[in-house]
Amino acid sequence: MGISYDADGDRFLVYENAENGSLENWLFPDSEASSDSLAFLSWSQRIHIALDFANGLHYMHDHTQPSIVHWDVGERNILVDSNFKAKLANFSTARPVTNSSMPKVDVFAFGVLLLELLSGKRAMETEENGEVVMLYKDLSEVLKVEEKSVERLQKWTDPKLENCYPLDGALSLAALATTCTQENAQARPSLAEVVLNLSVLAQSSPKTMHKFSTSKFKTEHCGSSHSS
């Protein structure tokens, strides 16, 4: 990324070419045409995209002077290159940190993004009866009954994954998202802690996935969603 100037002195941010567009295009294709032309993201791709983005936010929060918050974390502001590496985009609302609560706003929004990656649903959706469902509150209901949490989470997870993901990984991601979206801002983790958790999750995810059912693992390998 760099900066360019025109003859009138106007400044422009120059980004690397992101051949695969925004994460929003992958999670929420807006037409049948785009749905057919884009393969879905695999579990591994989702985890690594989340980790890439978290690393970028961590750099802004902890390794710039002054510290900076993005202030508009969301799937439309994540660009994906040809190797499915995620890049931060749109710094129009970024601003210097002036109090300890400001970074926690980014953390909350990042937690919601994790839920979108896990569920394939938007952060806020309207049901047929007109009820507005907030994704982070919806997950709380899913996990509320501990003895049924695994089965309920399976039903809640993005069906496009076709059960091709580690159950313990899905539970870990849901738990991380839950801590990020706590009502008490000061109880939310730092981006450094988020990066650590996602790094462990990325390293522990098996290279070979197997489809599973609620009763047993099936023997066939999962097909890849899209090769990088």
TrEMBL record:
<feature type="domain" description="Protein kinase">
    <location>
        <begin position="1"/>
        <end position="213"/>
    </location>
</feature>
<dbReference type="InterPro" id="IPR052611">
    <property type="entry name" value="Plant_RLK_LysM"/>
</dbReference>
<dbReference type="InterPro" id="IPR020635">
    <property type="entry name" value="Tyr_kinase_cat_dom"/>
</dbReference>
<dbReference type="GO" id="GO:0005524">
    <property type="term" value="F:ATP binding"/>
</dbReference>
<dbReference type="Pfam" id="PF07714">
    <property type="entry name" value="PK_Tyr_Ser-Thr"/>
</dbReference>
<protein>
    <recommendedName>
        <fullName>Protein kinase domain-containing protein</fullName>
    </recommendedName>
</protein>
<dbReference type="InterPro" id="IPR001245">
    <property type="entry name" value="Ser-Thr/Tyr_kinase_cat_dom"/>
</dbReference>
<dbReference type="GO" id="GO:0004713">
    <property type="term" value="F:protein tyrosine kinase activity"/>
</dbReference>
<dbReference type="InterPro" id="IPR011009">
    <property type="entry name" value="Kinase-like_dom_sf"/>
</dbReference>
<dbReference type="InterPro" id="IPR000719">
    <property type="entry name" value="Prot_kinase_dom"/>
</dbReference>
